[in-house]
Amino acid sequence: MAEATLQSQTRADEAFDCLQTAIVTGELAPGEKIGEVELCSRFNLTRGPLREALGRLESRGLLVRRPHAGVKVVSVSAAELLELYRIREVMEGLAARQAAERMTDEEIAELQATLDSHERMIEQAQGQAYYQAEGDYDFHHRIATGSRNAKLAQMLLGDLYYMVRMYRYRLSTSAGRPHLALREHRRIVEAIAQRDGELAEFLMKRHINAARINIEKKIEEGVLTI
Amino acid sequence: MAEATLQSQTRADEAFDCLQTAIVTGELAPGEKIGEVELCSRFNLTRGPLREALGRLESRGLLVRRPHAGVKVVSVSAAELLELYRIREVMEGLAARQAAERMTDEEIAELQATLDSHERMIEQAQGQAYYQAEGDYDFHHRIATGSRNAKLAQMLLGDLYYMVRMYRYRLSTSAGRPHLALREHRRIVEAIAQRDGELAEFLMKRHINAARINIEKKIEEGVLTI
DNA sequence: TCAGGGTTTTTTGTTGACAATAATAGGGTC
DNA sequence: GACCCTATTATTGTCAACAAAAAACCCTGA
Question: What is the ipTM, given to two decimal places?
């Protein structure tokens, strides 16, 4: 149960955080229509801050709102999820290139340490797809911020990842190919460490493309119904 | 003076539109700190809907808000503007590729007609940088929607373009190279008409890169201080 | 039994008043 | 004269009541 987490600066922020995590974790299912008073009682809020948070979430595309007709959590179709990966491919490719040019040596060392930690996690928690997904998220997060491109990081972290994570929680994207994904991550970090932006971009694009194809395959197999 | 435009469905939508256009047109200058009551009286709103709109604008990065300290229009530095163009390069490249694959023949014909209209505008309104910029916006708008990638179009039209347009209004990006830009546009449409997605992506990326270099040059010359 | 229209009810949109917080200005002290 | 502390003030954050709109329901008539 996603709680209010660290004390938010304002009630609206709190509402925003609560709702966002509730949507991402699936506590609020896609397609679910939900009234404002219901939400208020569930998260201990009043309607003022709630509505402000709803506005933010709507503009981020996590929920849709028809005037006088209530809010409803967005339901992303399989096709739309694949489109999201197309966007990730080019944006994270750029992030990797800029990260290679701009990350500090210290940040790169931390990134490598992160991968070591992921490796241990994969060995230990064999099959614990959840933690693998979190590790994957951590990796991409670091590269996005390492790009030193504030808007790029904002769009990736604030927009795309939340939508992708919505599905991570129920389909565990990289499941079935954790070692493969880790090897791809290592290659990308290697390119970044060598300050080879062009290669880092190429490898990142290929990495995300592989993830997309993996999902596409699962959908075709009928394993994954969205 | 951009007015409330088509009747908004709700007061909050109205507030959102008003503020957004006010920021884009420079009616609300970057860096300007402005109180809520001031905004209310200026746009004939009450604070409820206003605050909802402020939340949306904040999450889009058009303004920043410190608790109990008021809102302030975001001011993008020259370096950040150039970073925006890096993002545009990869995202619009993708949009062009997908547009080449997915636009209908009719849409392509309309796109070509749009360019003809732009050509006439350039000849007639020689130096009217404003209309040229609008024409440029129209072109990119059509390709973004033509990509049939809802999220991509949303991010481009809802996020990036507003920030770029903020500066269009005072520096008229493509000024000095309208004929050149038009020729680049024509080549891109040609590639789309031939359903050559790879080429369309390449040309679009080069087109935006050229625009970025143009701005960079102006900044170095000191013509453009941001 | 089904369709249409009107009424009720629920839910959202809006408003203005109240409370809390931070910026500011003033006074006192070093 | 400069600095710090305090009190004021203005502004934001929050709340609960009111108004409007849409959805649901029921009743009537064919």
Answer: 0.86
